Amino acid sequence: MAGTQHAQWSSRWAFIMAAVGSAVGLGNIWKFPYEAGEGGGGAFVILYLIFVFVIGAPCLIAELSLGRRGQKSPVNTMKSIATEEGKSTMWGLLGWSGIIGAFIIISFYSLVGGWVLAYIVKAAMGFGGFDAAQSTETFLNFIADPVQPIIAHFIFMAITVSIVARGVQGGLEKAVTVLMPALFAILVMLMIYSGITGDFAAAIDFLFRPNFHALTGDKILNALGLSFFSLSLAMGSIMTYGSYLPKDVNIPRSAITIAGADSAVALMAGLAIFPIVFAYGLNPGGGGGLVFMTLPIAFGQMPMGGVIGPLFFALLAVAAVTSSISLLEPGVSYIEERTGWSRKKVTAIIGFSAFLLGTLSSFGQPGNLLGDLQFFGSMTIMDVKDYLTNNIIMPLGAMFMMIFVGWFVSRKAMMEELAIEDKSFRVWYFLVRFICPVAIFAVFANIIYDTIIQPMLG
Ligand code: PHE
Q1: Which of 232, 263, 321 to mutate to test the pocket of ligand 1 (most atoms within 8 A of CB)?
Q2: Residues of the chain with pLDDT > 90: what percent?
Q3: Residue 2: predicted pLDDT
Q4: Domain boundaries in the chain?
Q5: CATH fold for the domain made of 12-457
Q6: Average pLDDT over residues 77-98
Q7: Percent of the chain whose pLDDT exceeds 70
Q8: What is the CA(100)–ligand 1 centre distance, in A?
Q9: Pocket, ligand 1, Cβ cutoff 6 A
Q10: In angstroms, what is the span from residue 231 Cα to ligand 1's centroid?
């Protein structure tokens, strides 16, 4: 057993940066814009924001509190809190679902992280005068290549592994405290640039004008899943980070900062990307290549694009790495605890396995080796992993976690962890016990009705 003392963040600021680093990543800059595009814009965006603050933030508080109380890896944290409360250790399964979910996510997350790395190089070579057709072709050719994306995916995973192997305070803290603010600054710049040169009015209209008829049951589930994904919830990441949290850090206040920063970055990414989408007649619902097809046009045309382009992708890569380390951490902390093997060895094994699983997502891209393989109609291998984690494991995991915290853990224990005034506590407790589980259940019930019951009734 690893009987060594459990690690801790060196300060509240370091923790906030690490948690923001986990939350802010490809979910905000790659996923949010294209899912908002596929979801028809306005109504999806508004719903996403409601989910982030009404459901996601209370879950974030709950998950951090569990982590800090349990002081172990997700599986053992769940087990030990359940035992402390005199409840079944079966709750440990919730830790497992997180670890497995995180493993599946990192397998494709690292691939997309690799795309970002490759785009640093492409941007440095210049997107000179790119139009929509050229940037689309460049991206599609790249993901159809059997070798290049795999090399990039390997490099991305190797970077993640090397940081996680060093432990929390080593590489992680230092990287996030400087680079996250830099990413923020460059996003503001991009937003201003594309606002001036692109079709800003159309972007605002698209992103904020609610068109509720576009919101079908599966889009609502997408918005819910995305809100969990972008806050890093229910995968054990936040629970593990919570376990490194000193007792004197105020969890609710931190959670609001994290949720605020997270949604701000998503909106900024939307405002940087959609003016270009509309100015160049790209398809907002065009899927996972959106960022890679739009921004090169801007970089190709703006003054200094040859410098700003690579810088942007480099910072995006950093944001992605600070998230991927939090995806690797839960599994590593559990196996380390369980086997007593060295952290280096555990990290390398899990990282390499996830890399292998991730190669399938690359080969399954259109035009690649397994590009013709399609599941459930038109889903690629990556789509299947994405759907399984975002739309099933995450919301269900979050629902059970809220049921656990709201109904199985004593009120007193949670009051101790939160340490907030009575009125705020009551609001949070009400959300956790009733609103969150019921809302998540309703989103599922709705989609089950839409896809299974209604067709049966004809
Ligand atoms: N929140 C991260 C992002 O938006 C992804 C992530 C999901 C990280 C789940 C950890 C756990 O990119």
Answers
A1: 232
A2: 75
A3: 39
A4: 12-457
A5: Amino acid/polyamine transporter I (1.20.1740)
A6: 96
A7: 98
A8: 14
A9: 22-23, 25-28, 102, 105, 229-230, 232, 235, 237, 323, 326-327
A10: 6
